[in-house]
Amino acid sequence: MLIKQIKKLQKTEIKDKVDNGLKEFKKLGSKGNKEWFSELCFCILTANSKARTAITIQKELKAGGFLNKSEKEISNVIRNNKHRFHNNKSKYIVEARKFKDIKSRINSLDEVSAIEFIVENIKGLGYKESSHFLRNVGYENLAILDRHIINLMVENDLIERPKTLTKVKYLLIEVEFQVLAKKMNMSCAELDLYMWYLKAGAVLK
Fold this sequence. Notes:
The protein is about 70% helix and about 0% strand. The chain is mostly helical. It has two domains: about 1-25 and about 140-200, Orthogonal Bundle (Endonuclease Iii, domain 2), CATH 1.10.1670.10; about 30-135, Endonuclease III, domain 1. It is globular and about 50 Å long.
């Protein structure tokens, strides 16, 4: 059922949106530390919160704001956009400045090593958000197991619904996602965009 739904989408204008999204990820991947740090902050914002308002906040603050504004100023922008956890997220963003050279830090690492570095060093980012960041800067083979993706996998009997999403459980589900991507001759990044569209009705980064 899921495979048929995605193949049907590939024959619509959604394919162009997905293809454009993948091109944007590659384009961002070719940029420097400043742009990568902005995307890292965006992914801190998305944790347990809406991607749409995180995009709005990122556009408002821009890379310079993430790098230079005070914790209070960032908190106010987050709160004014009615985005959740404004105090924690502004604190995490300011603390993440220790890694404002994030591209230089991880650019030579493979996907597994890169994600472990981020999870271990950047507060506010777990495996899902770290994978989200890496996908957005051009890494293609990591799953972003948010509620939309997990729900769709459960509904299509690809996995059992996890009671808690531990590291081990996350990585096991990621393997199932990678198997599905391979079966469809897609990268995980491409499959994620199609599956997210099926649940959310939009192609967002």
